[in-house]
Amino acid sequence: MQTEIRHTWFLDHSPATVWEHLTNSELLSQWLMANDFRPVAGHHFMFRAGPVPKMDFDGNIYCQVLEIQPLKKLSYSWKFGPEPGKIVLDSLVTWTLTARGQGTELSLVHSGLQEPEHAIAIQGMREGWDKNVGTRMVQLMINPKIHETNS
């Protein structure tokens, strides 16, 4: 059975500020993971984190920018596995930004996930997305000096 992770947040920041936090590699690394992201359609990049063997995750997420509509929409592939060259999860992350008054409604759809084989990964990513965006990204936008990294 196919499932999706869906989240929507309201952020007290302009679409331009939110967009910058989704597409600037340095800012993205402060609230999500180390990466070599560039906001260019077709660009292949990686997110890097610690491995999680129970999720068949070696710590590398292989991605490609698939769609980019500045200040409105960003989508990229999201693939990982237990070792290089072995992909066990092949999915899609789509961000949508909508101006709402003085702020931005930010929606995330992480699709292409299969249950029950991805059940542990789905639960971890559902919680991770909410924590990383709803807490870490928001805190970074409020007080960027607190969140400087050594990467």
Could you explain how this protein is built, in words?
The protein has one domain (2-147): START domain (Alpha-D-Glucose-1,6-Bisphosphate, Chain A, domain 4), CATH 3.30.530. The termini are far apart. The chain has a 7-stranded antiparallel beta sheet with strand order 1-7-6-5-4-3-2. By secondary structure, the protein is an alpha+beta fold. A hairpin with an 8-residue loop joins β2 and β3 (44-48). Residues 146-151 have low confidence and may be disordered. Helix content is 26%, strand content 39%. It has 3 helices and 7 strands, in the order βααββββββα.
Structural class: alpha+beta
CATH topology: Alpha-D-Glucose-1,6-Bisphosphate, Chain A, domain 4
Can you count the beta strands?
Answer: 7
Task: Note the quaternary state here.
Answer: single chain
Question: Strand order within the widest sheet?
Answer: 1-7-6-5-4-3-2
- Indicate how many domains the architecture comprises: 1
Strand content: 35-45%
By CATH's scheme, which homologous superfamily applies?
Answer: START domain
Give a quick account of the main beta sheet: strands, pairing sense, barrel closure. 7 strands, antiparallel
Low-confidence stretches: 146-151
**Please, what is the average pLDDT?**
93
The second-level CATH architecture is 2-Layer Sandwich
By DSSP (H or I, 4+ residues per run), the number of helices equals 3
Name of the top-level CATH class: Alpha Beta
**Fraction of helical residues:** 25-40%
End-to-end separation in angstroms reads 38 Å
**Rg measurement, Å:** 15 Å
